[in-house]
Design a protein that fits this description.
The chain is built from 14 helices and eight strands. The protein is of the alpha+beta class. Keywords: Signal.
């Protein structure tokens, strides 16, 4: 690299990065220095520096966890979320999809990994009902890892939750027997109507999910497009499980089992969504305001009626 290019690169970095880049150790002065650190140091060294920074600034544990979830492997964020759970932001952490995704990633690690052991200890705690939909969403996939099954299933069984992956011969038979088999009602599409607007969500690689409420209480129509797979273009009946002010989830029947498709969490009045699809990892979807305004619940209903004939 010639001197001119090197000079331009250095000028593009904050002064704190340049100054500390000359020293043996990189010491973060603020959380915003994490991204620049990654340009001049290895991920492991930046993570260690962030550990030290949060140790001196414990009120930054929660935003640090969100930053690590964004810039590193998801499971690496768990140690910071764990610290935040011990403070005043615990309820925010529980309701954050970043925390749920960090928990899932940690539970998918080998059993001797420190973060997996931390996730197993956290799972039955105060955030259990918040992370449950994401964990169950992963366990309802045929590709669920054995690490996740062994780490999460015992706790889920103790709470009477037995998703498909937890129903193997080595699992607790009493918990399986105690689980309630939930089914969707038999409806005549011609006798149904829609109420309220359509919600449209955008996901990875152009995937779009839309849903609208039926007049039958707690039932919704959900349509996926742009993601491929068995559900592409289909309008599927779902039931809502409400958790009051904390949010809700929408589930359907897939291969004879309950399948949680959409998890909504409300944070300070703003909803966030995590979507699970058969054979896919859970992903964060964003609310599409203009698309939602333009969408028609009536068209969604008509499509469901045609597909049901």
């Amino acid at each position: 690299m010639n001197n001119k290019i090197l000079t331009l690169l250095l000028l593009a970095l904050p002064a704190t990065v340049i100054a500390q880049g000359r020293s043996a150790d990189y010491e973060l002065q603020r959380l915003e220095d994490l991204a620049p650190c990654l340009q001049v140091r290895t991920a492991e060294r930046c993570l260690a520096s962030l550990d030290a920074y949060v140790g001196s600034h414990p009120e930054q544990a929660y935003p640090a966890g969100k930053a690590v979830r964004l810039h590193f492997r998801h499971w690496a964020a768990l140690r910071f979320f764990d610290r935040a759970l011990q403070g005043e932001q615990a309820d925010q952490v529980c309701a954050d999809e970043d925390f749920a995704l960090a928990m899932l990633a940690a539970l998918e690690l080998p059993a001797d990994h420190a973060e997996q052991q931390m996730a197993r200890a956290l799972l039955p705690g105060r955030c259990f009902t918040d992370v449950l939909p994401v964990i169950e969403g992963a366990l309802q996939q045929s590709s669920a890892s054995s690490y996740l099954v062994n780490a999460a299933c015992p706790t889920l069984q103790q709470h009477g939750r037995v998703p498909p992956a937890c129903r193997g011969g080595a699992q607790d038979g009493a918990a399986v027997a105690a689980a309630v088999v939930e089914t969707l009602p038999e409806l005549d599409p011609a006798a149904q109507d829609v109420v309220g607007p359509v919600t449209v969500l955008g996901g990875p690689e152009g995937a779009v999910l839309q849903f609208a409420a039926l007049q039958a209480e707690g039932l919704y129509l959900v349509k996926l497009s742009g993601a491929g797979g068995d559900w592409e273009g289909r309008v599927l009946l779902h039931r809502e499980d409400s958790r009051g002010l904390q949010g809700s989830s929408l589930w359907t029947e897939h291969q004879g089992q309950r399948f949680v498709t959409v998890v909504r969490r409300d944070r300070r009045g703003y909803p966030s969504y995590v979507v699970s699809l058969p054979g896919r990892n859970s992903a964060v979807y964003r609310y599409l305001h203009d698309d939602s305004k333009a969408a028609s619940a009536r068209l969604l209903l008509d499509e469901w009626r045609r597909q049901s004939r």
